[in-house]
Amino acid sequence: MLASLEGAVTAAVLALTAIGLSLVFGVMRVVNVAHGEFFMLGAVLAWWVASHVGGPPAVGFVAALVIAPLAVGALAALADMTVLKRVAYDPERTIVATIGILYILQQVTLMTYGPEARPVEAPFNTRLALPWVEWGEGGIQLYWPWGLSTTSYKLFVIGAAAAVLVGVWLLMARTRIGLLMRATQLDREMALAFGIPVERVYAMVFGIGGALAALGAVLIVPIQQAHYLMGGDPLLLSFIVVIIGGLGSLPGTVAAAVLIGLSDGIISVFFSPTLAKILATLLVALVLVFRPQGLFGTGAK
Amino acid sequence: MSDGSKTLALHGGLLVLLFALQFVLPAYHHGNLARIMVLASFAVGYNVMFGYTGLLSLGHALFFAAGMYGMGLAVQHGGAAPVPGLLAGIAAAVAVSAALGLLALRTSGVAFMIVTLMFAQAGYLTVLYFGAYTRGDEGFVLQQAQRVLWGIDLTQPDTRYFAALTLFAVCVLTTLALVRAPFGRVLIAIRENEERARMLGYDVFRYKLAAVVISGTISGLAGAVYGLLFGYVGATFASVQYSIFPLLWVLLGGAGTVLGPFIGTLFMFYLIDLSSAVTSAYMLVAGVALVLLTLFAPQGLVGEIRDRIWRWLP
């Protein structure tokens, strides 16, 4: 039970990060290997903003929640316009270029921010005891067992992530910008012929993808500390989620994030984390080999 | 001179030059060059798959580490002599690359890159998981007594240089023979247009599988020799970084050229060597190089030379 609550926090943040990767792959057909570094930058910027804004921790946190995703999104859009656009989104060359961007972001962070891990204070962090239902004498009873508790902040993370996901869905399904993105995704040439500014759409999608990763990182950073190497695990997990969910399918991505997030929390209680990771990576590789459309995806490529 | 004899003169000349250099280089660069030749052999292996067959692998650290650990574990825990150790390393690399090829070649394009990346990551984690034998990140050191091959002590700088040169020569001459043979021509045909190669009646899957196994075996051999010559076996060599390095070396030198991997390794090694003296963030150089190469020189150094001056370069 407690493991699954921890898992729900992981799942929430993972869903945000993975949806960014999935959006970029879906619309642009670009595998962004630097995605984990956008996540890391979000966390590092959150620390930077929170430590430069005075007042109570809540003010700094809210400032970080706004500034970090915007800054990372702008950086991602810039990377798209200066690098990815110029290699014409050729799949192999974009992968190599994003690997380069990965190292540039990571190492510049190492040079400026340094190798230490730094925490950001949560805006509120009251401890909540969870009730547990049991069949006792005289009917159902509620009681509060020792150790079964969570913090209000963790519940907030889950709620915020769900709200943002709904926002992304509304953006894609109900707005003009979403319409343009979906048109570009369906047929790039045709969209171009209809006068859609495909290059601007691409830059925007890449920016939104980076911003979503950064947002996930800002949410997680009061629980986990900001560190320049923290982008590796989210990248790997996002890949896993996007692949299991079906490349480019947004609902599949969210479903897979919940599945992986929950099972990651539960598996690591029973197995050593390393073994859990080995099994997860092998599973993903085999899914790609034998079921390239993903576990939830339908239809041909 | 015909193109064939020009090719032989150029590559033979490089090997003779490398042989001669060991008598004049100062100790520091002498050691570096030995290391570069072993790493360049790894890049030569990578190039068979990426440069000639057009299969972009992001998991070559898996093969390098398979060779290195196959050798290292046999010597350390099996008490094997260097020669059986090397054979164990090669056998491990052949087995791993054949298994990976059979699975990963069912995919193509982006999926292939991610599958190779994932398998390499699983391999790296496996090394960490069996920390009781592999000592994980810390790695283990092979003692001097374990590194004597037919009475030749591989811990001495001179013999080490010579062993590295032998390995490099074998790898370069093998690929040279390979790409000039009909087999290599078919690989290039697959790289240029897979459908057309299939229409011409070639069993594309078998050729690609052969390319993966040859590439993996050369890379694994380089890994085994690296462990033997420098006496250290560690999990770093299985990490993503060592999958990215050969890609970087081959891209820099020129994919699909026999000399490219060596030139790329030589440049990148010294670039990283110089920058790591200045900052601990030396991988920044690798990142910048990758971006600039994809933007401005996708052919690499030797590739550009081939395009502009020596059109006969293999």
UniProtKB/TrEMBL annotation, chain B:
Q: How does it sit in the membrane?
A: Multi-pass membrane protein
Please identify the protein, giving its name as recorded. Answer: Branched-chain amino acid ABC transporter permease
The UniProt keyword set, sorted, is: Cell membrane, Membrane, Transmembrane, Transmembrane helix
Membrane spanning segments where? 36-55, 86-105, 112-132, 161-188, 209-235, 247-269, 281-302
Question: What species is given as this protein's source?
Answer: Antarcticimicrobium luteum
Recall the GO molecular function terms of this protein's record. branched-chain amino acid transmembrane transporter activity
**Source organism superkingdom:** Bacteria
Location in the cell reads: Cell membrane
Q: Which InterPro entries match?
A: ABC_transp_permease, LivM-like
The entry's cellular-component GO terms read: plasma membrane
